[in-house]
User: What shape does this take?
Amino acid sequence: MLTYILFTLVVGSVYALLAQSLMLSWGTAGLVNLGLAGFFAVGAYASSMLTTWEHAPIMLGVFVAVLAGGVAGLLVCFSTLRLRDDYLAIVTLGFAEIVRIVASNEVWLTGGTDGISGVPVMIARDTGIWFHLGTLLITLAAVAVVYLLQRRLLSSPWGRAMRAIREDQTVASVAGKSVVRFKAQAFALSAAIAGLAGALYGHYTSYVAPDQFQPLVTIYIFLAVTAGGNARPAGAVLGAYLLIAFLEATRFMAEFAPGVTALQAAALREIAVGLGLVIILTLRPDGILPERSQKAPAL
Assistant: This one.
């Protein structure tokens, strides 16, 4: 039972990183990123290929994953500069599917649908419960570092400029802010955080495959950020852990519904997630932790 709880907390921490990634691009900059699973996959594959096939140190693999995610975010962002903001969602969704299809078919590069197995772990598996506990501490540290960095960013002039761009980029541009540069920075940082989450996930499960990066991952993260509060790092983290707790709790739903098949139980889980989100948004339209009004800096 303890192993199951620790596993759930590790996955929740990975989702908390993804939720903070989405909060930065969507909640702060107003950039709808429907390709979060793609950047998640880029980070996982980058670190897994480097450490498994080239036998590079895990820390180097994680660094490359963060860098690869950031570069991929810049490429996707710059490809949409001449398009309206609405098209960013379409482009990012297409990017995620391209990553998944390439990972499924380019066997020479990614191992195809068989994936990459034997990915080095951060804590030796033969240590038993310490493997899960040690990995949990590492992922929690990553969540805390990203959280503190985002808090620092959002309270800085950069964060205030991003909120101004989110509210009205025309006014921000007239005020002298480089809208394109700020958006590219936010999107690249967001994608880099998703790459970090992918690397940590790959080094925990020791296996990376295309079916782990379905669009459902992005939907879950949107649910978590919406429920927790899409403009506050604390809301994103809280929403991610609550989502994982709710998803795991619904696994036992079939026990209380006699005559329900495994397929029907899976459908009931998705219905329960949707109903939970409707209830939260009805009671708390701005999420559990809504955005606080910002005070003007003292002159």
